[in-house]
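Q: I'm writing up a methods section and want to include an example of the input and output format. Could you take the sequence below and give the corresponding predicted structure tokens, formatted cleanly so I can copy it straight into the document?
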Amino acid sequence: MPSQAAELVFDEATKVYPGRDGAAVDHLSLTVPAGEICVLVGPSGGGKTTALKLVNRLIPLTSGDIRIDGTSILQHDLTELRRSIGYVIQQVGLFPHMTLEGNIGTVPRLLGWPRAQIRQRVVELLELVGLDPEKDRRRFPAELSGGQRQRVGLARALAANPALMLMDEPFGAIDPIVRARLQDEFLRLQQELRKTVVFVTHDVDEAIKIGDRIAILREGGTLAQYDTPRRILAEPADEFVAEFVGRDRALKGLALRTLGELELAPVAGADGLPRLPAETSLRDALALLVAERGDALLVIGADGSPLGIVKREDLLS
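A: Here is the clean output for your methods example:
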């Protein structure tokens, strides 16, 4: 099934709550290109979740606008708007009395899809998120682990093939090992589906791993910096951004580059050197050299053939 994605534009989007000193979101302007993941990150009180909920009008705008493929959200019928957007939350929100098949088919049923089409879509999505359609579609949410429920929540959000997905700390309540696996699975799905995604997290490392672009919000809902993870780590806009992403930002930046991006030295003299695939991150390569007290390693291709040598100082330059 062909993927679809939509450009999302925040245009001076503002939300002020009555009686509150200052805005929750203050004149937020940014563009999320179609097919990219924008991660909203910032301290408590930065308006991350408020900004997310403005998009599907769970919270009304005070002023400004938000446009999906050029059309204001205010011009959409509210019910149709929400049904056209995938929504994933930390608590998953599966209906406990429904099977997984019933949960995933919720929006397609509301849209009037034929029963056979819904069944086919459920099977397709369960396979896509790594569950067994035959074994799992008749199970209930209480029978699943937290990680499995989160996968079903993702499948439900994808059911009607939305052009835009909103994800509010979707992996926040899961243990670190399962969380890392779900992040990897989500990135694999994104490579295949290329949805436009707005993803809220409080975890800078998750933002760096997940985002094509990161929007860092200050307390009070103003935008501090909006850029690629690599640019934010290399060129923080100000001291607030530098402090927020952490003093170890140079090391975090190494996680965004791979050995295959480096200019490699000739293979001669590679006997006895550790061997790592070209897709290995510079951070993982450096960690290996530090652990083994080595000064160089051999980079290999997908077929195991040697590509070249990289030295420790090359990883840090």
